[in-house]
Amino acid sequence: VFIMKLLVILLFSGLMTGCRGNSSYSLPPKLLLVSFDGFRADYLQNYEFPHLQNFIKEGVLVEHVKNVFITKTFPNHYSIVTGLYEESHGIVANSMYDAVTKKHFSDSNDKDPFWWNEAVPIWVTNQLQENRSSAAAMWPGTDVLIHNTTPSYFMNYSMSVSFEERVNNITTWLSNSNPPVTFATLYWEEPDASGHKYGPEDKENMRRVLKEIDDLIGYLVQKLKMLGLWENLNVIITSDHGMTQCSENRWINLDLCIDRSNYSLIDLSPVAAVLPKINITEVYEKLKNCSPHMNVYLKKDIPNRYYYQHNDRIQPIILIADEGWTIVLNKSSSKLGDHGYDNSLPSMHPFLAARGPAFHKGYKYSTINIVDIYPMMCHILGLKPHPNNGTFSHTKCLLVDQWCINLPEAIGIVIGALLALTTLTCLIIIMQNRLSVPHPFSRLQLQEDDDDPLIDL
Ligand SMILES: *[C@@H]1O[C@H](CO)[C@@H](O)[C@H](O)[C@H]1NC(C)=O
Ligand SMILES: *[C@@H]1O[C@H](CO)[C@@H](O)[C@H](O)[C@H]1NC(C)=O
Ligand SMILES: *[C@@H]1O[C@H](CO)[C@@H](O)[C@H](O)[C@H]1NC(C)=O
Ligand SMILES: *[C@@H]1O[C@H](CO)[C@@H](O)[C@H](O)[C@H]1NC(C)=O
Ligand SMILES: *[C@@H]1O[C@H](CO)[C@@H](O)[C@H](O)[C@H]1NC(C)=O
Ligand SMILES: *[C@@H]1O[C@H](CO)[C@@H](O)[C@H](O)[C@H]1NC(C)=O
Ligand SMILES: *[C@@H]1O[C@H](CO)[C@@H](O)[C@H](O)[C@H]1NC(C)=O
Ligand SMILES: *[C@@H]1O[C@H](CO)[C@@H](O)[C@H](O)[C@H]1NC(C)=O
Ligand SMILES: [Zn+2]
What are the transmembrane regions (predicted)? Predict the structure, then answer.
């Protein structure tokens, strides 16, 4: 009986949640996806973010987002909007070379659709829906004709456009467009730039930079409130990767191991992409024991857990530096912070915070994968996701319209119910015994209506 009641209560609370916010369900759902480049997950614990913490209080926080290897900017931003590992979406580095077409890709030479067309980003899918458009205040790929489509509203990439201008223009597009903008992106270069310059262990400089970012978040929220977008807009604030401290005492100089004429270097550090000009095995042999702080892999031997193998743009040999080590040519690095390392390192992980009608309020969750964001965004926008490597159920606990009972909670409920049931039964037996003591024929009576009290429950 008790369990039945519990079930009924659970059912009702579920129905109530389902019915809540009738008005917000009748409008088309809208989503703004924001990235602050290089926002390492534990900055949130180690620095103060009054505006961001207010945002989180009214929404959800995922403390660690496990990103994809290599933990670089373009690859991870494209994984967020496609749900694919790098080998499957084709943006396998910030610097690439395709041996068949002899094309080069870099962050300043990225507009050839060839590089992007192996996947379909969510802003393209969103625009195939009737009466919907997408807008972008920058995000890698949003100024490229991917599958012959750009967002209806976008900016060409330029780091000299201020955050305020990006916010002003994206919020104008979100308020005034017809057909309405239902998916929008906003990208900002910090704290990545300062993380590289000072290193994440420079507390004083990082505190200053991170306070500036929190003020920018304050500006964004204020703007959304002023324009009446705040209540019905879903906002995700996340990032592509973290940052770790580097040092000139941790350099790996390739020139000490192999002659430059023997190979081309497609990408340098911390994951070097090596295209041999002589026998591959020979190059591999020269590099294999170059440094104890660097793993050297032939393409076929790259560990499966990286999902970084099955693409022509991944070069025949890759070198992966240990955390905090930098691969250099004849001493040539001034970076005090870097990223790109093994994606299982916590220092490489970003966080995710989200708020709006689709999200719970005041919910904390320890971890999801960066590829899980895409199916969640498709769900919120009512889009059919393309095949991807994410898992929708990982994000169910963040969403108001999903059932979410995790295993510990479920066990807790069952144990709780059993305890309550046992206690009640004991109480009833004790009370019956007490009541029955004065009666001379208690035994007989007890036998008669033995089961009644339990049925009444
Ligand atoms: C749903 O929203 C509409 C308009 O916002 C309102 O008129 C209506 O009463 C609401 N229905 C319920 C059941 O809350
Ligand atoms: C799209 O918008 C037009 C005009 O606003 C409207 O007539 C049409 O029903 C809309 N289509 C859908 C699928 O909402
Ligand atoms: C972006 O740049 C291209 C080429 O420079 C130009 O033709 C185009 O109009 C620009 N688009 C926007 C939205 O500024
Ligand atoms: C932002 O909008 C203003 C006003 O429409 C426009 O003049 C400006 O060029 C836009 N900025 C960018 C970077 O597109
Ligand atoms: C490879 O490097 C060696 C020196 O280690 C040099 O003698 C040789 O000419 C180089 N081969 C090519 C093809 O550049
Ligand atoms: C490369 O060198 C290895 C041994 O040094 C040899 O067994 C192999 O046949 C060579 N491969 C080519 C393509 O020359
Ligand atoms: C390495 O640096 C030294 C001094 O800066 C220079 O003389 C030398 O030519 C460099 N070697 C290469 C291979 O660039
Ligand atoms: C990732 O997803 C793509 C598209 O469905 C698929 O082709 C690929 O095999 C997946 N990768 C893994 C490792 O499952
Ligand atoms: Zn980045």
Answer: 410-430
The span from the CA of 16 to the CA of 318, in Å, is: 54
Instruction: Report the DSSP beta bridge partners of residue 321.
Output: 294
Structure token digits, residue 328: 């250099």
Q: What is the 3-state secondary structure (H, E, C) of 49-67?
A: CHHHHHHHHCCEEEEEEEC
- For 40, phi then psi, to 5°, come to -65, 140
200 preceded by a cis bond (ω within 30 of 0): no
The tens digit of pLDDT for each residue in 288-327 reads: 999 999 999 999 999 999 999 999 999 999 999 999 999 9
165 lines ligand 4 (CB under 6 A): yes
Residue 198 structure tokens? 């000072």
pTM of the entire predicted model = 0.86
- Indicate if 73 belongs to the active site: yes
> Closest Cα to atom 10, ligand 1: which residue?
22
Token pair listed for 150? 């750009």
Cis peptide before 191 (omega within 30 of 0): yes
Condensed to tens digits (0 to 9), the pLDDT of residues 339-367 reads 999 999 999 999 999 999 999 999 999 99
Q: Which two tokens stand for residue 327?
A: 């691969």
